[in-house]
TrEMBL record:
Gene symbol of the encoding locus: tyrS
Binding site for ATP: 253
Entry protein name: Tyrosine--tRNA ligase
Subcellular location: Cytoplasm
InterPro entries hit by this protein: aa-tRNA-synth_I_CS, aa-tRNA-synth_Ic, Rossmann-like_a/b/a_fold, S4_RNA-bd_sf, SYY-like_C, Tyr-tRNA-ligase, Tyr-tRNA-ligase_bac-type, Tyr-tRNA-ligase_bac_1
Subunit organization: Homodimer.
Length: 438
């Protein structure tokens, strides 16, 4: 297993803001983390002054957070490192409803499912924030203050401050009103519930700032406006940009599958490869948003992208840093070892069996018996289209099994690697995984 970069290891355990910025607000702007906000001059003064309390909400609409949520978690961590106190809100009540999607009504999950997901998301949030010290983070659940609230009290004390005309103008609501699906009263009311969250956190913890994605701006300002009406004071909101790839495709999606933060739903190997495959046009922006590398370090990597793009130094650093932050240095070292060994730069026999299997699951693969020939396996995995093409590839010396060249078409697959698997290779870079049964 290769030695993990010592700096990445230390950063994962004790991340730090860039000391070249006088105010954390200036660093947020440089990293491109502010797409929309309330008054910027007031925010800069607020974040550069005495510690404040801020929050971000995460709804349990799935059993894991994903890369979009990671943007918010790292933003909270950056603000915490500047001395401010984060609240991680996991929405036990708003998760029962779900914020309006642009196209269709959400399927409502059971209360038992949502409660289980709340616990899972809280455990994930804790991994990214410091839960001790003078700026200790705190986990909160909005079910605590919405469950005791009667419908009459909700309408009298909160609903009366909202104007339907204003609510209809919110982007998510207007999009749904103009769609065939329309919008239910349940989802229409979501913005009021999120506004109530900010009000409660202001009252309980003097919370002065909420962060979220810019697509949530209507919900963010719902709380800002409510506090202004009820408490006659100003609070703030920051909307981070929605991250898309340079070609306009949605970031964090691979054939419809989100990149989850739970290792069971998205293996560390898959996450590492996701970042490693970042386009040159996107990698510097990703380094700014998803890592704690300094401006000087990122500018150096930007130079490599321009002068030596074939080395993919920026992508390798991005994959190293983010996978270490999400899954830890040991898991990252294991997936780097697997990645290098699969492409001929390490010993396949020394790899962890679980990591190797998850790596092979990301490749073309097939489940075969120990009586399968290498030639048949080439066809079953799709590395060749026919037996005749497979024979030709073998005769030309372009086929190997577990790193050993195979020219005899009668050779059987061994499954000799850890976990009873084998790696089939055609040419230098075309690989497939073989899961061998008896």
């Amino acid at each position: 297993m290769p030695d993990l970069d010592i700096a990445a290891h230390a950063r994962a355990l004790a991340p730090a803001n860039d000391p070249s910025f006088e105010n954390v607000w200036d660093e947020l702007l440089w990293r491109g983390l502010v797409h929309v906000s309330t008054n910027q001059e007031e925010l800069r003064e607020l974040l550069g002054g005495d510690p404040i309390t801020m929050y971000c909400g995460f709804d349990p609409t799935a059993p894991s957070l994903h890369l979009g949520n990671l943007v918010q978690l790292l933003l909270l961590r950056r603000l915490q490192l500047a001395g401010h106190r984060p609240l991680g809100l996991v929405g036990g009540s708003t998760g029962l409803i779900g914020d309006p999607r642009p196209t269709a009504e959400r399927t409502l999950n059971t209360k038992e499912t949502v409660a289980a997901w709340v616990a899972q998301l809280q455990a994930q949030v804790e991994r990214f924030l410091d839960m001790g010290g003078p700026s200790a983070a705190r986990l909160v659940n909005n079910l605590d203050w919405t469950a005791p609230l009667s419908a009459i009290d909700f309408l009298r004390d909160i609903g009366k401050h909202y104007r339907v005309g204003t609510m209809l103008k919110k982007d998510a609501v207007s999009a749904r009103l103009n769609s065939e699906a329309g919008i239910s009263y349940t989802e229409f009311s979501y913005q009021i519930l999120q506004g109530l969250d900010f009000l409660e956190l202001y009252r309980q913890y003097d919370c002065r700032l909420q962060t979220g994605g810019s697509d949530q701006w209507g919900n963010l300002t719902s709380g800002v406006d409510l506090i202004h009406y009820v408490e006659h004071t100003s609070v703030h909101a920051i909307g981070t940009p929605l991250i898309t790839n340079s070609d306009g495709t949605k970031f964090g999606k691979s054939e419809g599958n989100a990149i989850w933060l739970d290792a069971e739903m998205c293996s560390p190997y898959r996450m590492y490869q996701f970042w490693l495959n970042t386009d040159d046009a996107d990698v510097i922006e990703r380094l700014k948003i998803f890592t704690f590398l300094t401006r000087e370090e990122i500018e150096e990597l930007e130079g490599f992208v321009e002068t030596e793009p074939f080395r993919r130094a920026a992508q390798k650093r991005l994959a190293l840093e983010v996978t270490t932050t999400v899954h830890g240095p040991e898991a990252t070292a294991a997936v780097i070892a697997a990645s290098e060994a699969l492409f001929g730069k390490g010993d396949l026999q020394t790899l962890d069996a679980t990591v190797l299997r998850t790596a092979l699951e990301e490749l073309p693969n097939a489940e075969i018996t120990s009586q399968t020939t290498v030639l048949d396996a080439l066809v079953q995995t799709g590395l060749v289209a026919s037996l005749s093409e497979g024979r030709r590839a073998m005769s030309q010396g372009g086929v190997s099994l577990d790193g050993v060249k195979v020219t005899d078409e009668t050779v059987l697959v061994s499954g000799a690697l850890p976990g009873g698997v084998s790696v089939l290779r055609r040419g230098k870079k075309t690989l497939a995984g073989l899961f061998v049964t008896s």
